[in-house]
Amino acid sequence: MAFNYPYALARCAYRQTRNIGRLMAGLPVRTPPLIASTVGEDDAELAIRWLKDRRQWNEEGIVREYEKAFAQWNGSKRAFSFMGGRIALSASISALGLKPGDEVIVPGYTCVVVANALIFAGIQPVFCDIELDTYGLDVSRIEGKMSAATKAILIHHLYGLVCRDYEKLLSLASSRGIPIIEDCAQSTGATFKGIKVGNRGSCGFYSSEHSKIFSTVQGGMAVTGDEQLAIKLEEFQRKAPFPNEKRTEDLLWSMVLDFRRYCDPSRWWRTEVEEMAHGRRPLESTTSAEIQGLRPVNWGERMPAPIAALGLNQLKKIDRFNEARRGAAPQWDSWCNKTGNNKPLVIAESKPVFLRYPVMVKPGQKTSHSWTLRALGIEAGVWFISNLHPSHRNIEGCPAANEAVHRCINLPCPIR
Ligand SMILES: *Cc1c(COP(=O)(O)O)cnc(C)c1O
After folding, report:
1. Is the CB of 104 inside a 6 Å radius of any atom of ligand 1?
2. Number of alpha carbons in the 13 Å side-chain half-sphere of residue 66
3. Which atom of ligand 1 is nearest to the CA of 87?
């Protein structure tokens, strides 16, 4: 698709008009980015190098190196890369041998792409309510959801927190003889009893989508400690197509533009200018078809060498950035103490990574865009806007999840 200059100009004009409006209202313009992106100038330069020199684009050795480095860093036996956490989930579903007609318990507060990965495999997601301490699956609500068709439980660790019922969920699944899939898309690097999340279930998956803990623009990793499952994951990966050259090129360009969008100090004016200068827009992570629950044409891709190379560079910095995220949380703890808001629960023996700091506010405050600017000088996030974010589809029978949909906002945890 050709770059739409009139539209880009209009967007630029809109953004700067909004900035002028904010300045006139005494509101901040240079707010810390809500997406605390780990993309630095080195990553942008690396992407440009790969764009210029395409000789190694098909080098699978670089992909293997990235997976090995991730597995080692994560304390996992094996890791397999894909073009999204959602694809890593598809791979896990396939590796576990889940079949059409099977049911999987899923938190009723998740990303639409998680439900999609199950539905695309013919599996029925059975939504179960969450708790409001860490926004994880509520173990006390599971009993009524289990049936003879339940073949797995998908748990998640949201916002960088380790979920409250982690151990109880693991032992429940093990007593039923069914596997746990751990969705660690928002919690790469969080630990419980010194072990990184994702390693206690049968399979775990992670995301390097650009708004998550580390970024390859889009990307994901599936891990397992089980050699049989590893063989199946490998098989799934071998059959998966690589993105075509055009898409890989778009991903690399998105890395360059993401640096401007989230990390350049002049980003509040420079973002659109840079996009126009290159005639490029960053790729959207979730297509409108996916939001509607439709399977996109390029669904199910594995990671090519240039993107794995970006991942390798990111891994070198991930610990430093996760420390910074942790360092950003205490300011919000103090704010909660002062205002009487509930702090998110950090369970005993866990070390969260605070991708964002979730807090429940009054219902009207989630939809108002200016109160956090006025009161806190920041833009707040709205994960999740529905039970199946970012679609507008909601689910019945999950009252706590619905409350979070109406009241949970996420405060930024900047890393610079
Ligand atoms: C982002 C996210 C996913 C999907 O990861 P992608 O890499 O975007 O496919 C799954 N689950 C949760 C909780 C997420 O936040």
Report:
1. no
2. 27
3. 9
pLDDT in tens, 262-316: 888 788 888 888 888 888 888 889 999 999 999 998 889 999 999 999 999 999 9
- C-alpha angle 265/271/272, rounded to 5°? 155
Question: What value does the CA radius of gyration of the chain take, rounded to a whole number of Å?
Answer: 21
Q: pLDDT-based confidence at 19, cuts 50/70/90?
A: confident
211 lines ligand 1 (CB under 6 A): no
Do the beta carbons of residue 61 and residue 214 sit within 8 Å? no
CB of 86 sitting under 6 A from ligand 1: yes
Q: Which residue has the tokens 């751990």?
A: 182
**What is the 209 CA–ligand 1 centroid distance (Å)?**
7
Centre of ligand 1 from the C-alpha of residue 274, in Å: 28
Mutation test residue for ligand 1: of 118, 137, 154, 212, the one with most atoms within 8 Å of CB: 212
Strands 203-207 and 220-224: antiparallel
Q: Give me the residues paired with residue 296 across strands.
A: none
CB count in 10 Å sphere of residue 209: 24
Q: Using most ligand atoms within 8 A of CB, pick from 82, 92, 206, 207 the residue to mutate for ligand 1.
A: 207
- Residue 84 Cβ < 6 Å to ligand 1: yes
Encode pLDDT of 109-164 as tens digits: 999 999 999 999 999 999 999 999 999 999 999 999 999 999 999 999 999 999 99
Nearest ligand 1 atom to alpha carbon 156: 13
Query: What is the distance of C-alpha 192 from the center of its chain?
Result: 19
Cα–Cα distance, 408 to 403 (Å, whole number): 8
Residue 354: helix, strand or coil by DSSP?
A: coil
Q: Report pLDDT digits (tens) over 372-414.
A: 888 898 989 999 999 999 999 989 999 999 999 999 999 999 9
Nearest CA to ligand 1 atom 12: 185
- How far, in Å, CA of 374 to CA of 28, rounded? 8
